Amino acid sequence: MVVIGHSMSGCISRLPITDSKQRIWDQMFTVPPNQMDLTPDHKHILTESSIFEHRPEIGRVIFISTPHRGSDLATNWLGKTFIHLVKMPNTLLSIGFEEARYKKHPSPRFTSCR
Description:
Blueprint: E1 2-6, H1 8-14, H2 23-28, H3 40-50, E2 60-64, H4 77-83, H5 90-99
Parallel strand pairs: 1-2
């Protein structure tokens, strides 16, 4: 399978070829997933979105104008304006309240897809 990602979808296309192991989880939380007192649905969403393995059926990824090191547009006045227009889905907001007690750091503003 060949995956082609243009611009921001190039950042998303990078995820299926990445082995995160537990690095992302460890940077976000102070305890492992099995020690968190969360609902099963919320625990599933958190682990699936932060602990993942590459997809072996993907043989090649083509990136077209992908901002692998971030973009200056995210921090200029236009980017800051649009950040305020984006809303989090209610499911993620409810998870955020539950897992906040396990967070290591306050949530950063993401400007890169590294």
